[in-house]
């Protein structure tokens, strides 16, 4: 067939794949966008589409059973060699008895495709395509086998008693991990594709008799509106769909734990799995969700309650302590008892810089050390501890540049922020701390209070997919307090959280009476 | 209609807004005010004031029951025509603007005299108006959330004050009614000022999720107000001797000087700062109602523009002129009268007019 037509199709397909200028106009499929059935022509077009693609493998063969010419096309690194050799090529080349080529191939997933655009994306996703001379459509075999790692312990969210399987980079495996916890046919999955170049699969997983369908519509709508070239990570998706992108607070929970994801689904929330990303998104969440950890439910409820309270206390410390120190030292020294003031004064006396500068300097050092600890390779990482602990901590005090008390304040703040279970929330807290410090340096304790009120004013106005972010504190939902500041015994948690507006509120039938066990 | 449904508030939020507006600076001022006029029997006047206010608030609720889909202004527009609504809207806008201005200046004065002596008032005002603007621009729902959070976050206040009770001398409350009922009754009008704010219900009514509970909610709100006023008044009455009362300004704050916690030397400084959250409920809802009334007059919906104008005016004007203490007291007196007319008399008059017009209409229909 003439080269002109070939080039025409090639250009049209190339346009649909990437061109932002043409905004989907290239999707007008005509008959000429389908394969011709002539093996030589089709292969020529295939090679024209994939120029400079040395990993594209075209294997010409003759099917033994029918004697027809055919070619198997696949991308080398994305496919499973064993499967191609043993399940496709071997039966095709060796089987005699069968009259039809499809019945002899022993691969689980087999599709027939006709349009070039589909074939092209199938090849790129790791399928292998069998063109048969004279057949009007190509056979697409599911032979995906890209490089992937084994399932490991979650790295960021470690837990003492939770499962030791973390999400990996493959969407189907991640969904399988969730399904293992909820083998129920009402666990539904809505799949969407986003990204013109990455064509990323995004699956929203939920229980359709529990979750709120209005929220689902919002999530799907927001994902559907995204028109971007590539989505590399689930964090990017979360920024693209969250309610208030200017807020310092994360409004979508990221987790790499399948057990956390499953327990969120059962509470009526939605889990959004992004292909190639080892953490999934949970929405809609509230402020309190960031202070729950999967261990809370497997330790004794009294311990869990204590730890919950400890976390909220740590939140206050991590945001306000350095600011309070600045306010008390430089403005409102009448607030603290005299003897404490004298002790502080003894150490502060020799320090030549103002409390604010002192605090900013130490906090910045702490932040740098923390960042260094994350980025440095493990063998070098130990030096950070030595440099931080000895050089900064001790030497700076001995030199009289920073007071002892300030080092204690910074250390206390750091420890407080370490016990918050969610990394994104800690990041927000770290940032807020500096604003509070500025407020304290300018207006003392009054500045901190203004900062607090602004914080509250902001938190109550935040929404996460139509549900209030500040719940259950503001708006107050007393029913949800059972699992926020405290964690009441599991057999008392008869209802799901109201804040997610679940369709089915009841969770369990009470099987213990009030007085039992006493 | 949809506008109100999307922004609905719960009963607790309704209670929190009304109680918060009433309690805010009354809590600090009322013991002095009561003692000045009625001596240690002031608490009786408070109870009478509460009874009067409850009656007035039930009238307001009764008025709103006639028209469930909108605020008072919508109701007026329906029965009295658009211009009747506009006239009342203008009056109300003025009322709420003055109400919030009064609250703002009062709290700023307290802060200036106790905490930030050096900072110019316009800076303090600017700072406290930032969170106020952030909440008030976001419609009723967020005001409700903010108020209920503030109310819950202030539950420590009674405990702090109960520390002072070890210095209490309960005999100061006796004798009851030394000069008969006269002073008690003459003090009742003075308590009116501290009960102002329940009128918010005529704006909040259409947003309420459970309208049938409105009457109960407002009684609960007023009772909460009464209890907190009674609490602070009696604590002050038994703490300060009748002679001391004349010399001490803002006794509620003075009381805390006797409290000393192991980690906190000066509790009253901390108290004022943390009380700012309750203070703010005095002006945040009224700022919003101001912008609502203005918007209603001009048929707009975005509350931000009137808010910005008012807030800007307050801040800029405070650079040049801030009422001093005596002017503030005069303003309070005047506002008390204005508030009495708006909150107590107006609903009664409107209810009477409304039932007359309804009767007239049915008569016309029958004829």
Q: Order the strands across the largest sheet of chain A as they lie in space.
A: 1-2-4-5-3
**CATH architectural category of chain B:** Up-down Bundle
CATH topology of chain B: Amino acid/polyamine transporter I
Largest sheet of chain A at a glance? Answer: 5 strands, antiparallel
Low-confidence stretches of chain B: none
Number of helices of chain A: 15
Give the total of domains of chain B: 1
Oligomer: heterodimer
CATH superfamily annotation of chain B: Amino acid/polyamine transporter I
Structural class of chain A: alpha+beta
Rg of chain A to the nearest angstrom? 30 Å
Number of helices of chain B: 16
- Provide the domain count of chain A: 3
Overall geometric form of chain A: elongated
Please give the alpha-carbon distance between the first and last residues of chain A: 88 Å
Main location (chain B): membrane
Pfam families (chain B): Spore_permease (PF03845)
Keywords (chain B): Germination, Membrane, Transmembrane, Transmembrane helix, Transport
GO cellular component, one term (chain B): membrane
Features:
heterodimer, A: alpha+beta, 3 domains, five-stranded antiparallel beta sheet, 15 helices, 11% strand, elongated, B: 367 residues, mainly alpha, Amino acid/polyamine transporter I, 16 helices, 0% strand, globular
Would you mind describing this structure in some detail?
Chain B: Its main location: membrane. Chain B: It is found in: Membrane. Chain B: It comes from Cohnella thailandensis. Chain B: This is Endospore germination permease. Chain B: InterPro entries: Spore_GerAB. The complex is a heterodimer of chains A (518) and B (367). The radius of gyration of chain A is 30 Å and the shape is elongated. Chain A is 45% helix and 11% strand. Chain A folds into three domains: 3-141, no CATH class; 171-285, no CATH class; 300-468, no CATH class. With 518 residues, chain A is an alpha+beta fold. Chain A starts with a helix and ends in a 50-residue tail after the last strand. The model of chain A is unreliable at 21-31 (pLDDT under 50). Chain A has helices at residues 3-18, 39-49, 81-94, 101-104, 116-124, 171-181, 213-225, 234-241, 258-266, 301-330, 338-348, 355-375, 378-398, 404-418, 423-461; strands spanning 56-62, 69-75, 110-113, 128-132, 138-141, 187-194, 200-207, 253-255, 270-274, 280-283, 463-464, 467-468. In chain A, the strands form three sheets. In chain A, strands 1-2-4-5-3 form a five-stranded antiparallel β-sheet, sandwiched between helices. By secondary structure, chain B is mainly alpha-helical. Chain B has one domain: Amino acid/polyamine transporter I. In chain B, 76% of the residues lie in helices and 0% in strands. In chain B, α2 (11-38) packs across α7, α3 packs antiparallel against α11 (214-239) and α14 packs across α15. The longest helix of chain B has 42 residues, at 325-366. The mean pLDDT of chain B is 87. Chains A and B meet through α15 of A and α6, α7 and α14 of B.
């Amino acid at each position: 067939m003439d080269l002109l037509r070939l080039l025409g199709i090639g250009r049209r397909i190339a346009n649909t794949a990437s061109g932002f200028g043409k905004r989907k106009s290239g999707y007008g499929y005509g008959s000429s966008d389908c394969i011709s059935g002539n093996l030589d022509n089709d292969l020529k077009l295939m090679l024209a589409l994939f120029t400079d693609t040395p990993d594209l493998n075209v294997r010409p063969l003759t099917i033994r059973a029918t004697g027809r010419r055919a070619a198997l096309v696949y991308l080398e690194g994305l496919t499973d060699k064993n499967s191609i050799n043993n399940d496709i090529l071997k039966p095709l080349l060796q089987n005699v008895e069968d009259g039809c080529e499809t019945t002899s191939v022993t691969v689980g997933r087999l599709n027939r495709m006709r349009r070039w655009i589909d074939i092209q994306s199938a090849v790129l996703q790791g399928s292998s395509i069998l063109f048969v001379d004279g057949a009007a459509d190509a056979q697409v075999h599911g032979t995906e086998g890209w490089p992937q790692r084994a399932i490991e312990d979650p790295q960021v969210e470690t837990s003492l008693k939770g499962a030791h399987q973390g999400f990996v980079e493959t969407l189907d495996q991640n969904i399988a991990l969730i399904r293992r916890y909820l083998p129920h046919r009402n666990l539904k999955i809505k799949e969407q594709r986003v990204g013109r170049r990455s064509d990323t699969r995004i699956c929203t997983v939920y229980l359709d008799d529990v979750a709120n369908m209005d929220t689902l519509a919002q999530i799907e709508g927001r994902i559907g509106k995204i028109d971007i070239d590539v989505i590399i990570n689930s964090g990017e998706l979360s920024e693209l769909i969250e309610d208030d992108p200017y807020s310092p607070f994360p409004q979508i929970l990221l987790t790499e734990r399948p057990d956390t994801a499953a327990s969120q689904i059962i509470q009526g929330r939605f889990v959004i799995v992004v292909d190639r990303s080892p953490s999934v998104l949970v929405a809609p969440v509230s402020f309190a969700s960031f202070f729950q950890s999967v261990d809370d439910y497997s330790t004794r409820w009294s311990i869990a309650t204590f730890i919950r309270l400890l976390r909220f206390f740590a939140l206050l410390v991590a945001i306000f302590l350095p600011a309070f120190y600045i306010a008390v030292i430089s403005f409102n020294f009448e607030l603290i008892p005299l003897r404490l003031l004298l002790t502080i004064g003894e150490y502060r006396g020799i320090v030549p810089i103002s409390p604010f500068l002192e605090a900013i300097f130490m906090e910045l050092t702490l932040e740098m050390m923390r960042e260094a600890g994350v980025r440095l390779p493990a063998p070098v990482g130990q030096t950070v501890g030595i440099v931080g602990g000895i050089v900064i901590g001790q030497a700076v005090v001995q030199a009289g540049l920073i007071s002892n008390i300030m080092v204690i304040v910074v250390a206390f703040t750091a420890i407080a922020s370490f016990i918050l279970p969610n990394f994104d929330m800690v990041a927000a807290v770290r940032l807020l701390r500096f604003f509070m410090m500025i407020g304290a340096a300018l207006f003392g304790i009054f500045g901190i209070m203004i900062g607090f009120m602004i914080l509250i004013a902001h938190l109550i106005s935040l929404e996460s997919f139509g549900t209030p972010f500040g719940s259950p504190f503001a708006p107050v939902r007393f029913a949800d307090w059972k699992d926020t500041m405290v964690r009441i015994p599991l057999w008392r948690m008869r209802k799901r959280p109201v804040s997610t507006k679940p369709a089915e509120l009841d969770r369990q039938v009470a099987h213990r009476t009030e007085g039992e066990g006493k | 209609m949809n506008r109100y449904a999307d922004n609905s508030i719960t009963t607790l939020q309704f209670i929190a807004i009304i109680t918060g507006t009433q309690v805010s600076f009354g809590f600090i001022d009322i013991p002095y005010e009561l003692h000045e006029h009625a001596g240690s029997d002031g608490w009786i006047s408070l109870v009478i004031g509460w009874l009067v206010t409850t009656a007035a608030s039930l009238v307001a609720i009764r008025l709103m029951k006639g028209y469930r889909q909108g605020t008072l202004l919508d109701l007026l527009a329906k029965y009295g025509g658009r211009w009747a609504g506009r006239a009342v809207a203008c009056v109300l806008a003025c009322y709420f603007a003055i109400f919030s201005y009064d609250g703002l200046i009062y709290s700023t004065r307290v802060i200036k005299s106790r905490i930030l002596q050096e900072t110019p008032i316009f800076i303090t005002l600017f700072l406290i108006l930032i969170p106020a603007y952030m909440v008030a621009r976001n419609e009723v729902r967020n005001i409700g959330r903010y108020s209920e959070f503030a109310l819950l976050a202030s539950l420590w206040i009674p405990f702090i004050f109960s520390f002072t009770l070890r210095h209490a001398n309960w005999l100061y409350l006796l004798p009851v009614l030394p000069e008969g009922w006269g002073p008690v009754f003459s003090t009742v009008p003075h308590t009116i000022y501290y009960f102002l704010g329940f009128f918010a219900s005529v704006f909040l009514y259409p947003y309420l999720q459970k309208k049938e509970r409105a009457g109960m909610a407002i009684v609960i709100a007023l009772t909460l107000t009464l209890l907190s006023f009674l609490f602070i008044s009696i604590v002050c009455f038994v703490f300060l001797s009748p002679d001391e009362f004349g010399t001490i300004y803002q006794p509620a704050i003075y009381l805390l000087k006797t409290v000393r916690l192991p980690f906190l030397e000066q509790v009253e400084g901390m108290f004022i700062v943390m009380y700012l959250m309750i203070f703010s409920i005095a002006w945040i809802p009224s700022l919003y109602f101001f912008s609502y009334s203005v918007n209603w007059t001009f048929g707009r919906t975005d509350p931000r523009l009137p808010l910005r104008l008012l807030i800007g005016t307050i801040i800029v004007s405070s650079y040049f002129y801030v009422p001093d203490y005596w002017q503030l007291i005069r303003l309070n007196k005047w506002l008390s009268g204005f508030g009495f007319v708006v909150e107590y008399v107006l609903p009664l008059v409107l209810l009477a007019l409304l039932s007359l017009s309804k009767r007239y209409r049915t008569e016309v229909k029958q004829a």
